[in-house]
Amino acid sequence: MKPRSFFSVLAGVVLVLLLIGTAGAYWLTARSGAQVPKQIATQPTTAMFVSRQAVAMVTLLVNPERLESFWLAETSPANRRQLQTGLRQWQQSVFASSGLDYDRDLKTWLGDEVTFALTTPDVNRDAADGLQPGYLLVLVADDPELAQESLQSFWQRRANARDLVFEQFAGVQLIHAANKKIAAGQPSLTSAIVGGRYVLFANYPKVMREALNDVQVSDLNLEQSFTYQQALEKLTGSKLGLVYVNLAQFGNWLADSTIATASKIAATESGLEKPHYEAMAAALKPARQGLLADTLLLTTTPNAQPVRGAMTNASPILQFIPTNSRFAIASRDLPTTQTQWQSQIASIWADGSPNRAEHSQLQQPWLRLQQQWELQFPDDALDWVTGEYALVQLPANGRSQSDWVFVAQQTAETKTSIEQLDQVAQQQGISLGALSLDNQPISAWIKLKTEAAKPELTSLRAEVAGVRTTIGDYELFATSLEALEQALAAQSATTSDIKDAIAQLQTPNQGYLYLNQEALEQLLRSIRGLELPKTLVSSLRSAVISSYGTDEAGLRGAIWLHLDGA
Questions:
Q1: Which DSSP letter does residue 308 get?
Q2: Which of 134, 137, 412, 419 is close enough to 201 for a disulfide, judged by CB 3.0 to 4.6 Å?
């Protein structure tokens, strides 16, 4: 593993520790009487080493060793051995290329604060060699003398294989390897100890020098950033971890762009003036059955118009979401909500947007529904959905396409609008039919297709393109009779992940986005540089994201992660 890969994987280490640690703390408190690691009310001290232009920073405010113990304690003995083996193998692969051994070099002196930062998307800004990200790891030593001894021993072992460079910079000694086989500009693990208490590692000497310079010039570091301080002020209370992301830099990184050349998403798409979001911050804390992250998207637009949540009780609409749903959105007033979400996404990526195709992901579910029905509806086909609604994707289960379910609360325009949908369907070759499912009347869109069993014989086959029914005040649409049957059966389910999650979140809010384990794993695997072992990813059972609306600081929300076994 190259040094660059070492720090890429290490990003995953810190993120996962934040996830599993808080859940482990809950498990032991709720079930075995063990005490949760003390949550920290004070703010991180290591942000002074991180540039205010850094892409992202993740800080763990409790010792990692204790968190791993908490997580393993509630796992069954058989799974515990497997999980621990996976953790150890992963740990060895992470540190192997650098020569660092966690048990030998870090464990004995490590304190209660660990910060990892992606300082820059590209250290040398040379397009010829692609992106070369800069990574910084800052550890607070509980035993400074032991930390000094361990670091000396580490470099002495490496000196047998290569020369070492001892460099003085800003009154601090930097140590890094001088491997003549490594071309100039390539990663080289670098360490430093500052004030006896802070132990720093970087994947380039240049990254380390910039970190030390940031400490001395306060205007350069994140700790003195107004936006960062505003985030700390708003995310009050005790926490076990903190995440801070510079959205412009993060967008550039995701878009594989060294310089902010990605085009802005047109502000006129929704017809609304969009606030610009500069950063995202999240405070992580334990919650019932998992981990809760209170999030804040910080705006640079002064006196932004507050937008409050419109959904106060999602229980009626949630009763139609099957327990095996892969993906679900539940909210209120579809036309307005979609406009707000598009506006917020556009604002988040305003200075470093991924391509427009990624922005169109918000519209894909409705587009996929039309493709599956082989129909094309007008853009205003769902403008009547001004009450509660839910859009659900079910697992494909080996089929070429997933089934979808759409649920909408009835309004005064519902009957007329559905009649118009039927007319559009008929104009495109669809016939209307009637079915019955357990005495529940079902309306169906039926498509007739020809089949030629023999050259001289042709037969017609009726294919159900879509179905709908009415339950109380709600209209249910589905891509198949089986999907509709699952939605109707969901009413009798006593528990579900999404119902459990909503109990953790504030109301009123702007709705919920739910991802099951499969969808969440796919999302995590798609994030560049986040290399997570399967054993840890599989422990994430589901996730629910909610927006609480905007205030003078920005857009507030929460992310709830349900961990398997919690």
A1: E
A2: 137
pLDDT one-digit tens code per residue, 287-313: 766 778 899 988 876 555 556 556 777
- Which structural domain, as residue segments, surrounds residue 540? 307-550
Helix axes 64-73, 77-95, angle to 10 degrees: 150
Strands 198-202 and 134-141: antiparallel
Q: Supply the pTM of this predicted model.
A: 0.77
Rounded Cα distance between 285 and 242, Å, is: 9
**Where on the phi/psi map is residue 189: left (φ > 0), alpha (ψ -120 to 50), or beta?**
beta
Cα of first residue to Cα of last residue in the chain, in angstroms, is 34
List of residues 6+ apart from 526 with CB closer than 8 A:
none
- Joined together, the tokens standing for residue 507 give 């109301």
- 241, part of any domain: yes
Q: What percent of the chain has pLDDT over 90?
A: 26
Return the half-sphere exposure (C-beta side, CA atoms, 13 A cut-off) of residue 28: 17
Helical H segments across 183-225, by residue range: 205-216
Q: What is the mean pLDDT of residues 525-542?
A: 66
Helix H or strand E segment including 245: strand 241-246
DSSP H helices, 349-432, are 356-359, 364-373, 414-427
Does residue 336 share a domain with residue 208? no
How far apart, in whole angstroms, are the C-alpha atoms of residue 424 and residue 452?
29
Select, from the ranges 1-10, 147-156, 296-305, 506-515, the one with the highest average predicted confidence (pLDDT): 147-156
Strands 474-478 and 404-409: antiparallel
3-state per-residue secondary structure call for 453-491: EECCEEEEEEEEEEEEEEECCEEEEECCHHHHHHHHHHH
Nearest to 327 by CA among 406, 240, 411: 406
Is 353 among the domain residues?
yes
Residue 266 lies in a domain: no
**Residue 240 burial (CB count, 10 A):** 24
Question: Would you state the structure tokens that stand for residue 89, as one six-digit string?
Answer: 């193998």
29 shares a domain with 100: yes
Please report the beta strands in 56-109, taking only residues with DSSP state E, as ranges in sequence order: 56-60
> Is residue 131 assigned to a domain?
yes
Average pLDDT over residues 374-396: 83
The dihedral over CA atoms of 84, 88, 91, 96, expressed in degrees to the nearest 10, equals: -170
At a CB cut-off of 8 Å and minimum separation 6, what does 466 contact?
373, 444, 445, 477, 478, 479
Same-domain pairing of 221 and 325: no
Q: What is the CA radius of gyration of the chain?
A: 27
Is 160 in the same domain as 49?
Answer: yes
Number of domains in the chain: 2
Residues 52 and 159 in one domain: yes
C-beta of residue 257 within 8 angstroms of C-beta of residue 63: no
